[in-house]
Amino acid sequence: MLTKTEAIVLHTTKYGETRLIVDMYTRTNGRLSFIVPLPKSAKGRFRKQLFQPLTLLTVETDLRPRLQLQKLLSAAILTPLPSLQTHPAKLSMTLFIAEFLYYALKGEQQNEPLFAYVASSLQWLDGAEGHVANYHLVFLMRMARFLGFYPNLSLPPNPSPAGEGSDMFFDLREGRFCEVPPVHRDFLLPAEAEKVQLMMRMDYATMHLFRMSHHDRNRLLDIALAYYRLHLPAFPELRSVSVLQEMWE
After folding, report:
1. Is the full-model pTM beyond 0.85?
2. Which one of 1.20.1440.120, 3.40.50.300, 1.20.1440.230, 3.60.140.10 gives the CATH number of domain 83-245?
3. Per-residue model confidence as pLDDT tens digits over 31-47
């Protein structure tokens, strides 16, 4: 069936000497993998630059649901995102988010709100000027809402006398605050549980107001990724984390 849709490039792998396998997340069909011929000349139908991670495309395919690799008929830039490939901090973010999405969207079916969230988040980052050090934290935790395991941030009915949940633990498996530590090890002590509340109050418009140390930012990233590993099967350690954690020292 001929299908035209918007798509986000997740990952590209060279296949032999003349082809690429390109994983994309599409607006209308969810996660798809395409076999793409490499151009033999400057006039080739597809330019390799089209398939850089997190490029936003409009693609056309003859969709065959039983095929693992779909045939790509055409591809064109949907929205240029030039600063993601030239700005050093944004490039580090891009490499991390591309690797994160490659695993987080494994087998993900059609989810138009999720697609819109990722696409609009990339457009926001491309246009952002100034402080973007907290961007990846906002991106990760807001995305959990679309995958079905957004944390429950409400406090138990009888919170601590301080009134701010300062004595609450956070159960990473259940995604909620609790007054006593759970019987398993996947929880945060009160000092770090408070940082989860801090992280969840941020959004793209206000994240520059939340000043935190290099250590605290990296610890929050570790917590966010641990949370994803608990809720997504076979979610691995990400190689790009170390590069991102060296930023903004």
Report:
1. yes
2. 1.20.1440.120
3. 999 999 887 766 667 88
